[in-house]
Amino acid sequence: MSDAPAPAPLLIACALGIERLALRGGVPRGAEGPVTVLRTGMGPRAAERSVTRALGEPALRGAAVMATGFCAGLAPGMHPGDLVVAEETRGPAGATTPCEGTDLLVKELVRAVPGRTVHTGTLTGSDHVVRGHERSELLATGAIAVDMESAATLQSAVRRGARPIAAVRVVVDAPEHELVRIGTVRGGISAFRVLRAVVPAFFEWHRSLLLPRR
């Protein structure tokens, strides 16, 4: 019988059913450690409630947390299907949460989806869908992308105790490519496929955090 400790669990949190469908389709067989794909519902309050509740379960105590799904790009030149790796998330009230393993995630994402652009920087939060002039206002704060759940997800995770956290988002619309409804145009379909394709990168990030530190 092995005396090795059981691998730490991984919680992958998203807001929408279509995101969860993409994520579950990308989970590789034989993933190391227990994995939960959690649909939190839309908005920061829903994310906070769902993540706090999930991490209170014995099976997920100490879990690494990955916030993911779709986002809106803020910078000119961003396109649907681009990837955003957060160096930090920033809540609507300004509180920031630093992420771990950014460089590794960029490397693995480039490997998973060759040719896709990967952006790194601040992922800011909002309590509503951002449109028009609000994009430029958020860009002026130094953020490169916005979504409604990542900041709340990671803030809730660290409140439950120290753990590895990260956020990776797929751009579904951008200043020159605004969407009205996800999945009804080419940009939404492209983002769905990219999200499904990058899931193995999350497991490499998770696996690297389980390796002994030298």
Characterise the protein shown here.
The protein has 214 residues and is of the alpha/beta class. 35% of the residues lie in helices and 25% in strands. The chain is built from six helices and eight strands; from the N terminus they run E-H-E-H-E-E-E-H-E-H-E-H-E-H. Strands 3-7-6-4-8 form a five-stranded mixed beta barrel, surrounded by five helices. Helix 4 links the parallel strand 6 and strand 7. Helix 1 packs across helix 6 and helix 3 crosses helix 6. About 2% of the residues have low confidence.
Write the layout of secondary structure elements.
Elements: E1 10-14, H1 17-26, E2 35-39, H2 44-55, E3 64-73, E4 83-90, E5 96-98, H3 102-112, E6 118-125, H4 133-139, E7 143-147, H5 150-159, E8 165-173, H6 186-210
Helix pairs in contact: 1-6, 2-5, 3-6
Task: Write a concise synopsis of the structure shown.
With 214 residues, the chain is α/β, with parallel strands linked by helices. Helix content is 35%, strand content 25%. Helix 1 crosses helix 6 (186-210) and helix 2 runs parallel beside helix 5.
Notable characteristics:
214 residues, 35% helix, globular, alpha/beta
The largest pleated sheet is described as: 5 strands, mixed, barrel
Give the CA-CA distance, first to last residue.
26 Å
Uncertain segments are 181-185
Radius of gyration: 16 Å
Number of strands: 8
